[in-house]
Design goal:
The chain is an alpha+beta fold. The chain is built from 25 helices and 20 strands.
Length: about 700
């Protein structure tokens, strides 16, 4: 047993492919080695711009031998006149065996010939050699290339191949290269070939030659360096996982250095400068203690330069033209007010059959006005915000930096003197931008966001362009979940069926006349169902509430909360069973809805007691339901437990007397309706 290292050295790989390629190498080969019983522990994976590698601990040199049993022909067909038949002769030839090697076994179908042989295990070299072509073939590469006059294909030209098992070279032929015990260090600090004494020393040897091969270790090193450098400058680095991953994939020996730029550029919105630094240069921007952008940045070099200032000067020289371009766009946009871009929205297409972005904005204004009335918010502010919220799409800075959409609008609206609520809506109406993302904070922004998302849902769904599989070009799933989250988490009391109906009106003849709004409501309800389950509510509780055909998310979640609290009581399972039993009886009797009960036809004490108990609590339950105090309503319902149990224990519903039977069915109908005022209790599963 010895450690195994396999390394493929390349010309510089694209940043986004470095880690996925290395992980695939490790995972794919590990599956092969594990199946061959040559190792058990998963590998350590290494990834830099110039190499992908994996190291396995305690790998065997040879597969263990195994005993295999091959089944031949039936004994009856194995011999002819005492001599081996053609069937038996062919079997023996294929197995390279003789008659002396075989035996027989009894089966339900008779006696059969069997051959027990020892299968010699394959060597590690054979196992890996056989696996490598498929490992390379299945690697995730957006595009493969050829180099020189070779027929081999890889993401970038392959330069070297290192494969060691312990201290011995594992002979492999991969992509036209023969494996060896040599690797390469840093391109500039250690350009000569490096001989590895053994596989175990791989990472340590490379580190001595200015290569931090472990991706995660290098990532942590960069993160620590950037934070320390930022602190030394009195700031905090703007960083995220994507930026850290990309920078890590670009260097082998990270060295963080700081640069500066002219403070005059700070007039530009900080988000635009940060985006330029991150996406164009992979720089880390710096914020001061107030959250304002500092005229400094941190970059991660791939070299420990003897003249660090030269590296700094070069990076400062590169960023200035980009900032100058952004400043030009900012200055150009100053010449117009945000509202001046409204007329040009008609030239931006929203969807061929649904009109332009300008048409969408007009519809949003109408729905925003309706929502403002429902929620007692400023109709003027909501309509104004809706009219301006897409205007920045035609600004120069958004045309150059697409991610400034909404952000630029916020700056321009504030510059034009609009209120904070209206200005914030320019950016916040796009929230949430991803699952679990930030929601609009301001009321005006919440209303415009709802109007925008509902308009998209109604229009696209109305045309029959439903999401299929992974394809959702208009983000309907995100819009539907966004609507649900805003209504629930921001406590907005809006009925989905009403707002969808209002949106449908704004489309006029653009939608098919046979568009069934209920199909869209069902689609949004499915997102609500998933959201509720993510909040910890059980599937049966969600089904029980949604069985009431409700379309107000805030109301639905309030009912779920009440159900969750109610089902922990002793009465819950009893009443749920009673609701299910009464529902089944009514279903068989083909009766539904609320039927009148004639008190004079109540004979048994148990049915009289139940009728009286129901009559006593009905007014308070009706009042609680009106106030959406579902917990109190269900607590009142729970008081019926003893009366309900006594009724089912002592009263025969399906009696021979028709009048009595119908009266008892009417009593059950009212009971079922009362028990199911908050949710269909019959759908709750027993907790036992």
């Amino acid at each position: 047993m010895a450690d195994l290292i396999i390394e493929i050295g390349c010309e510089d790989l694209p940043a986004g492919s470095v880690q996925p390629l290395a992980e695939h190498l490790g995972k794919a080969l590990h599956e092969v080695l594990s199946k061959a019983e040559l190792c058990s522990a998963p590998p350590s994976v290494f990834a830099t711009p110039r190499r992908i590698a994996a190291l396995w601990r305690d790998v065997g040199e040879q597969q263990p031998d195994t005993q295999v049993e091959r089944k031949g022909p039936a004994v009856a067909a194995a011999y002819v006149d005492g001599e081996p038949s053609k069937a038996l002769a062919g079997f023996l030839k294929s197995a390279n065996a003789t008659v002396d090697d075989i035996s027989t076994i009894d089966t339900p179908k008779g006696e059969w010939i069997v051959l027990k042989q020892t299968q010699v295990g394959k060597s590690l070299q054979v196992v890996v050699s056989d696996a490598m072509p498929n490992v390379i073939k299945t690697m995730p590469m957006p595009k493969r290339m050829r180099w020189s006059d070779l027929q081999h294909e890889f993401l970038r030209p392959v330069v070297w191949l290192c494969a060691l098992h312990g201290s011995n070279v594992l002979p492999l032929q991969v992509l036209g290269l023969s494996s060896s015990n040599t690797t390469l260090g840093h391109r500039f600090h250690s350009p000569d070939a490096i001989t590895l004494d053994n596989a175990s020393s791989y990472s340590d040897v490379l580190k001595k030659h200015y290569v931090v091969a472990d991706f995660n270790a290098r990532r942590q090193l960069i993160d620590d360096q950037v934070k320390a450098k930022a602190a030394s400058l009195g700031g905090t680095a703007v960083s995220d996982a994507a930026l850290l991953d990309e920078v890590t994939a670009l260097v082998e020996w990270p060295v963080s250095v700081a640069g500066q730029f002219e403070s005059s550029y700070l007039e530009i919105p900080k988000e635009a400068l940060i985006q330029t630094m991150q996406e164009n240069q992979r720089y880390f921007a710096l914020l001061d203690s107030k959250g304002d952008l500092m005229p400094s940045f941190i970059t991660v070099a791939n070299i420990e330069s003897s003249s660090e200032q030269t590296v700094i000067d070069g990076n400062e020289r590169v960023i200035r033209p980009r900032f100058a371009d952004t400043m030009f766009f900012w200055e150009q946009d100053k010449k117009l007010k945000l509202a001046d871009h409204q007329s040009s929205l008609s030239s931006l297409l929203f969807q061929e059959k649904l009109g332009s972005v300008g048409d969408k904005v007009e519809r949003m204004q109408t729905v925003s006005a309706w929502l403002a009335k429902q929620l007692s918010e400023s109709e003027a502010d909501c309509v104004l915000a809706a009219s301006l919220c897409k205007c920045d799409l035609n600004t120069e800075i958004v045309k150059e930096l697409a991610k400034m959409q909404g952000i630029a609008g916020r700056y321009y609206a504030a510059r034009d003197g609009h209120s904070e609520a209206v200005s914030a809506a320019m950016e916040e109406h796009y929230y949430p931008k991803q699952a679990g993302g930030t929601l609009p904070e301001h009321a005006v922004a919440q209303i415009v966001s709802l109007a925008d998302k509902v308009d998209t849902l109604v229009g696209i769904y109305g045309l029959g362009m439903k999401p299929t599989g992974a394809k959702d070009p208009f983000g309907l799933r995100r819009s539907a979940l966004g609507v649900v989250r805003i209504l629930v988490e921001k406590q907005l009391d809006i009925n989905l069926s009403d707002v969808v109906a209002e949106s449908v009106k704004t489309y006029g003849s653009r939608l098919p006349v046979d568009f069934n709004q209920q199909t869209l409501l069902d689609y949004i309800t499915e997102r609500l169902k998933g959201y509720a389950q993510e909040q910890g509510y059980s599937t049966d509780a969600v089904d029980a509430v949604l069985a009431k055909s409700l379309s107000n998310p805030l109301d639905i979640m309030a009912r779920l909360k009440a159900i969750d609290q109610f089902r922990s009581t002793d009465a819950a399972s009893s009443l749920a069973a009673a609701a299910k039993r009464s529902g089944n009886i009514l279903k068989k009797a083909e009766l539904s809805g609320s039927l009148a009960v004639d008190a004079n036809l109540l004979i048994e004490p148990a049915e009289k007691a139940l009728f009286e108990a129901m009559a006593n609590i009905a007014p308070s339950i009706e009042s609680d339901m009106a106030k959406r105090d579902y917990q109190k309503a269900m607590t009142s319902t729970a008081s019926l437990r003893e009366s309900v149990d006594a009724f089912f224990d002592n009263v025969m519903v399906n009696t021979d007397d028709t009048a009595t039977r119908n009266n008892r069915l009417a009593l059950l109908s009212q009971l079922n309706e009362l028990c199911s005022c908050t949710a269909q209790l019959s759908r709750l599963q027993s907790s036992s």
